[in-house]
Specification:
The protein is of the alpha/beta class. Helix content is 36%, strand content 13%. A 9-stranded mixed sheet has the order 2-1-3-11-16-15-12-14-13, with helices on both faces. The radius of gyration is 32 Å and the shape is elongated.
């Protein structure tokens, strides 16, 4: 239409007028031009209509954010940097209800410096709720001498936790047990007490040998082996039972010397690598076992340990039924497995040593759930911002600790090299700390976590070897300097605070850097808003093991 008008006016105009019109068309293409001799204006399209609608929508959205946000009174379940994304504690989203996630746009670089927190909605650990209604240890069937040893060794433990109340009676009845419960719920005592009682009744009490123990506790790290040995030894001291530990990182000569220190022992606490080496050299025999415990079984069944554990179970005489446990001529071993997350695919492994139908599964109501008594903060940062943020957190904690003594700090990294590098940075800033990572020589690793537990240093920079089962009742803050690679790892790291017997309220601070970190954070936030367990975690012993390449 515009071209037709131009041709019509060109036919009516002279050369000078045509030249003037052409100049105007070239110099002012974005203005509406009215040609002389015509009352019709020429419309000019400035921007596409769809883009114009989007711009208008953005202006209206931007204007809506300026309006005051009506925050409902009362405590919050989720508090975000943007108040409109807060969620009150009394509100629970339905399973199919859409959740306004604070981390929804975190994969975009403009989201840096954003943050949100999952708030503490209860003061005590779930394992301690309604404690008075569950009776005491006498009601669980434990003998008086075991109860007396518990009272002398751990006087602060007066009543059983919910996990202990569920686990001890079936263990006393001779059942194979798989106990999956939240971290810090008292699982160690739940298997030590009934199994020690069984040893006291055993026929081989007078013939003890460190080369043929009657009890075996298998753990994934030497730090956890030292911790379990300390708890078991304190109980065994009052029961006349000897407990020894066998950690990894030792040569054959050191291994022989370590076993030779204790000519008689009832219970052996060992790591898979050290025990596998001792079995291969025939330094230890498992033919006289009365029980075998796989502590932190979810870790023991991952690809780094599963072949060793398979070999050890093949050498252990595990009972097919409770009747075989009481055979006076050829007693067999009772199998106990405990962990903070449900292990993947037990069926294939158990079918080699016992019937899966003989396994009693015990789980807690809070398994794979976000801990409701621990505040968990997530911060979206660039990689270069993490060091500055960490140093600020540590200095603030140190300043608060000087004003009023509080707890300690655990800083988790995903690799040994990051632990070392971060340690050098903290040294430059005169921040005293300890380091713990798996590539350290055995002589250097020995006693580091025990020193941290005793309070010689308030900061421990470590890898995930410090996240599995280690008791840390003095830890107040956990910092995920590197966000954990899996949800299971996040559960274990966060479980270092808010444990049964903890003296300080726990806080977890996580630095979120990569897009794959954001994907895990969104799953955690959605589970917290809906008050449901974390997605994608195994919840059945019947699931097969993942296929190995």
């Amino acid at each position: 239409m515009r071209l037709f008008c131009i041709k019509r006016n060109m036919a009516l105009a002279g050369p000078t007028r045509l030249l003037s019109l052409a100049v105007r068309l070239l110099l002012e293409p974005r203005r509406n031009i009215v040609l002389r001799g015509s009352d019709q204006s020429l419309p000019v399209v400035r921007i596409p209509r769809a883009l114009q609608r989007r711009q208008e929508q953005r202006r209206s959205d931007r204007g809506s954010f300026q309006r005051p946000v009506l925050v409902q009174p009362g405590p919050l379940l989720v508090s975000a940097k943007r108040p409109e994304l807060n969620q009150p504690a009394r509100l629970t989203l339905g399973r199919w209800e859409r959740a306004p996630l604070a981390s929804r746009g975190w994969k975009h670089r403009r989201s840096r410096q954003d943050h949100f927190s999952i708030e503490r909605v209860q003061q005590e650990a779930p394992a301690l709720r309604n404690l008075s209604s569950r009776g005491n240890f006498v009601d669980l069937g434990l003998e008086p001498r075991v109860l007396l040893a518990l009272q002398k060794a751990v006087p602060e433990v007066v009543q059983p936790t919910s996990v202990q109340s569920k686990t001890i009676p079936p263990l006393l009845r001779g059942r194979h047990i798989l106990c999956a419960a939240e971290t810090g719920s008292g699982k160690t005592l739940s298997y030590l007490l009934p199994l020690f009682q069984r040893l006291l009744k055993g026929p081989e009490l007078d013939s003890r040998s460190s080369t043929a123990p009657r009890g075996l506790v298998l753990v994934p790290s030497r730090e956890l082996a030292e911790q379990v040995q300390a708890v078991a030894q304190s109980l065994g001291r009052y029961l006349g039972l000897q407990v020894i530990a066998l950690g990894g990182g030792l040569g054959m000569n050191r291994l022989k010397l370590q076993l030779g220190k204790w000519p008689s022992a009832d219970v052996l606490v060992a790591t898979p690598g050290a025990l596998w080496k001792a079995l291969k050299r025939q330094l230890i025999s498992l033919h006289h076992l009365n029980f075998i415990v796989l502590d932190e079984v979810d870790t023991l069944l991952d690809e780094s340990f599963v072949e060793l554990v398979d070999y050890i179970l093949g050498k252990s005489p595990i009972a097919e039924s409770p009747a075989e446990l009481e055979d006076p001529f050829n007693p067999k071993a009772q199998l106990v497995m405990v962990g903070a997350t449900f292990p993947e695919g037990l069926n294939q492994l158990l079918s080699k040593v016992t019937s899966p139908d003989s396994l009693t599964t015990i789980t807690s109501s809070k398994l794979h759930c976000i801990m409701p008594h621990v505040r968990q903060t997530f911060m979206r940062l660039k990689g270069t911002e993490k060091v500055t943020e960490l140093i600020q957190i540590l200095k603030q904690h140190d300043k608060a600790n000087k004003a009023e003594p509080s707890g300690t700090v655990l800083v988790f990294c995903n690799s040994a090299s990051t632990v070392n590098w971060l340690g050098y940075i903290l040294d430059d800033h005169k921040i005293q700390h300890l380091r713990l990572q798996g590539q350290m020589p055995a002589s250097m690793r020995a006693g580091i976590f025990q020193s941290f537990q005793k309070g010689s240093q308030n900061i421990l920079v470590c890898t995930d070897i410090a996240s599995r089962g280690l008791d840390s009742i003095h830890v107040e803050v956990v910092v995920n300097y590197d966000f954990p690679p899996t949800l299971q790892d996040y559960i274990h790291r966060a479980g270092r605070v808010g444990r049964v017997g903890s003296e300080v309220p726990g806080t977890v601070i996580s630095f979120v850097t990569h897009p794959w970190d954001v994907s895990l954070v969104q799953k955690i936030e959605l589970a917290a808003r809906r008050r449901r367990s974390l997605p994608g975690l195994t919840s059945s012993a019947r699931d097969p093991l993942p296929q190995q390449d």
